[in-house]
Amino acid sequence: MLTKKRRKYVVIAKVESDHFVKYRFTDIDKVIKFLTNKYPGLKYMNIYSNNGEQRGKMLYTWGKHKGLEPSR
Fold first, then answer.
1. N or C terminus: which one in the chain shows less Cβ crowding within 10 Å?
2. Cβ contact 60:28 at 8 Å
3. Model confidence over 15-72: pLDDT tens digits?
4. Cα separation of 13 and 16, whole Å?
5. DSSP notation for 52-71
6. Alpha-carbon distance 39 to 46, whole Å?
């Protein structure tokens, strides 16, 4: 039986004042470029771990003014 490899991260992004999107991915740089191109009004995004002991823990946050930074 084949099993799918789990994506490394999950992102939840606020793209409009009342609309959020959720994506699973493995490369942070590519998903930031993708989301900023697809949603020009992107407000912020939170990036969570999807593997191991830290699954569900927020690792990074991205804001349109501050850019990518580790979560506190």
1. N
2. yes
3. 999 999 999 999 999 999 999 999 999 999 999 999 989 999 999 999 999 999 999 8
4. 9
5. STTTT-EEEEEETTTEEEE-
6. 15
Q: Which two tokens stand for residue 32?
A: 């930031």
Residue in 24, 13, 21 with CA at minimum distance from that of residue 51:
24
Sorted by where each begins, the domain ranges of the chain are 9-70
Determine how β-strand 9-16 pairs with β-strand 19-25.
Answer: antiparallel
What is the H or E stretch that residue 20 is in?
strand 19-25
Class of residue 62 by CB neighbours under 10 A (exposed 0-12, middle 13-18, buried 19+): buried
What CA–CA distance (Å, rounded) separates 3 from 28? Answer: 23
